[in-house]
Amino acid sequence: MAQQVTGELGSPSATTTIDGKQLPAPDPKFGGVIEEDALKSKAWWAPRIVPPKKAPNILLIMTDDSGFGVPSTFGGVIPTPTMDRIAKTGLRYNNIHSTALCSPTRAALITGRNHHSAGFGVISEQSTGFPGYNSIIPRDKATIGRILKENGYATSWFGKDHNTPAFAASQAGPFDQWPTGMGFEYFYGFVGGDANQWQPNLFRNTTQIYPFEGKPEWNLITGMADDAIDYLNRINQIDPSKPFFLYYVPGATHAPHHPTKEWVEKIQAMHLFDDGWNKLRERIFENQKRLGVIPKDTQLEPWPTKVLKNWDDLTPEEKKLFIKQAEIFAAYEAYTDHEIGRVIQAVEDMGKLDDTLIIYINGDNGTSAEGGPLGTPNEVAFFNGVNQMPVDVQMKWYDVWGTEQTYNHMSAGWSWAFDTPFTWFKQNASKLGGVRQCMAVSWPGHIKDQGGLREQFMHIIDVMPTLLELTGIPAPEYVDGIKQAPIEGTSFAYTFDEKNAKAPSRHKTQYFEMFGQWALYHDGWLLSTQVNRAPWEAFGAANPDPLNNQVLELYDLNKDFSQSQNLADKHPEKVEEMKKMFIEEAKKHQVFPLDASVAARIVAPRPNITAGRTEFVYTCPMVGLPQGDSPMLLNSSYTITADITVPEGGAEGMILTSGGRFAGYGFYLLKGKPVFLWNLIDLKRVKWEGPEALTAGKHTLEFDFKYDGLGIGTLAYNNMSGLGRSGTGTLKVDGKAVQTITLPHTLPMILQWDESFDIGSDTLTGVNDADYLPPFPLTAKLDKLTIKVDRPKLTEEDVKKLENAEAIAVDGSPIHHLQSGPQ
């Protein structure tokens, strides 16, 4: 495209487009005149860079963990009037695909490259030291935010950032992999996979903020909508001519499901789930056929009774709990759609809706089943191996489900229904229930076929090239002097033309892979591996040969919309041909080495700022250090020593804490007495306590823990047998042991991910509500805090033991036998 210039070049008001081959654009040659004195010289200003004329504003929206059958726009029973509005004035898409997991889909969306190509074969918390899995977006794959920013857009990111490596998320930086380092000039949201919506680990750009303090009704879903509206109005008032690119990605409907009371009451009044999940699935299926978003001949597979019970086989107590779980999820979805509507309304109120392209993608993967068959009041429990908490235990949280007292997830029975007409869930890359999303797109004045349906095959990597085509901005050849890798997606802008409503898809071939399950799409055919692991089965032994140790299935999606008719036996030559194609794609896009492990990758070693260190010393208060960058005490022996000075009259407050209400530990003074407490996934709290309040003056407090397990190592990280074992803790005051307790089991995997490592006070939630409320500042003087970690060293004999041991099973999971119920 030819350069577009406005105004007189050299004047302060001049603007220009750029060819975009090199970003940032090179400084233009000075066009004025310089003599020995200013009176004989001529000033000259470089023109301001702007996008091409008629380049639209862009509002790119994507929700979280939401399957094809969730929104009302595509046949779901949950009201999503905002998505309905976009679809009515624009187009509906029923054939766009994700990667089956959060971080990977998001990396693919913002780079236009496949998730392994972008370093995100898995979520950042599971990254491993291979190019396709290290959770580092390479410099040769600049994001859509960076490209649009350098071409004159105001770029922003609101909500979930799951593309900053978990080992680079602290205030020590580096910040090049944060949104502001990837081309988004403004960021308001949380870093990581999920967040407590009532008290989130929230950032504005790279600074932690606490807008919820003193506001018990505050919720992030509304908070981020408010901030986005404020941002849009601010940009519009400062420079109305500057187009915006706003990337809007709320944490909903990822667990924890945290809607407001108002929305819970609205959904409960509708009685959407009283008939159970079998009937819900049938109702969604009929709605989908009636709306025409699936073909009339689509087949619905039988309910998977080997995996999930039929509704009629449940007890009355199970039904009561599960209905509540679904109502909270539905309220969260409806609430989120409403708040998205407020942002869109703000664009309309400023008179810019006609110039705004809106892409609304439902879900970054299929509905999550990580709550397991029974659901859970605490998602952190799932990541620690407790995925079937008994219903009678869960009922103790029934009245507070979805409030700040829970980190809740629903039963997988609902998740299966919400992925109708497909089967399986998030994490399952070989089944459409894990990867088939739905999408609505509007662009007033440019899309004539209002309410039309588009059925061409697409993938999330197609969004970036579409945006570049519609803005008239080319993909750069160099960014920061680094030659850029080719964009791997295919623009779907051609589908906006009504003449192309039935045109063949231009995206012909696409691979899928997640946790060793894989598939290949090519011209309507889909080769896929048979599902060999439910998402809640994360702790079992992994498939040692995920490329070949598979049952392969073959589907003709041109005739079989729901992937229900396996044709592998009828076309063995096609199976072999497509497997070879998958291997070629896998080599091309950094998919190898395939790895079927799940939980094991969470504890794999990473290059975080604690790597290789065994001693940590702190001399002043500090809060907000994320879990991925703080000293890891799990599966290790450790000693925490606090040297403090108690003032006259005594002291109280937090010395050190990591985690929060749903899993963590705290070392604090309570009414002057030293306390060390382990919160074991909100099922049990074990407390060591000194017998008397500390006197004024200097004291040394020590908590010493001796771990009995073998630990974990690079050679054996795929075996979980050494994790979550027993250990003995001793609390000492001024060198004297005051209490010793042995824990039969310890946490094997994680603390609460969205909580931080805090010294001198406690941010967000506390580890024990019965003892204190945050921030609980330390009123003693902290002279020195020392943490020494002794991680078990694996001998050759230990490795042999691990290789011969069975992996942790659900029934023998580390926390399974803890005392039940909240304490």
3D architecture notes:
- The protein is an alpha+beta fold and 823 residues long.
- It folds into four domains: 1-50, no CATH class; 57-375 and 410-501, Alkaline Phosphatase, subunit A, CATH 3.40.720; 511-601, 2-Layer Sandwich (Arylsulfatase, C-terminal domain), CATH 3.30.1120; 606-812, Sandwich (Jelly Rolls), CATH 2.60.120.
- 19% of the residues lie in helices and 22% in strands.
- It contains 15 helices and 33 strands.
- Strands 5, 6, 7, 8, 9, 10, 11, 12, 13, 14 and 15 form an eleven-stranded mixed β-sheet that branches.
- The protein is globular.
- Residues 713-718 and 805-823 have low confidence and may be disordered.
Short description:
This protein is an alpha+beta fold. The chain is 19% helix and 22% strand.
Structural class: alpha+beta
**What is the class of the largest domain in the CATH system?**
Alpha Beta
What is the name of the CATH architecture of the largest domain?
Answer: 3-Layer(aba) Sandwich
Give me the count of strands. 33
How far apart lie the N and C ends?
Answer: 66 Å
- Number of distinct helices: 15
CA radius of gyration is: 27 Å
The CATH superfamily label of the largest domain reads: Alkaline Phosphatase, subunit A
For the record, the count of structural domains works out to: 4
Helix content: 10-25%
Beta-strand proportion: 15-25%
Instruction: Outline the low-pLDDT stretches.
Output: 713-718, 805-823
**Overall body shape:** globular
Largest sheet: 11 strands, mixed
Overall average residue pLDDT: 94
The CATH topology of the largest domain corresponds to Alkaline Phosphatase, subunit A
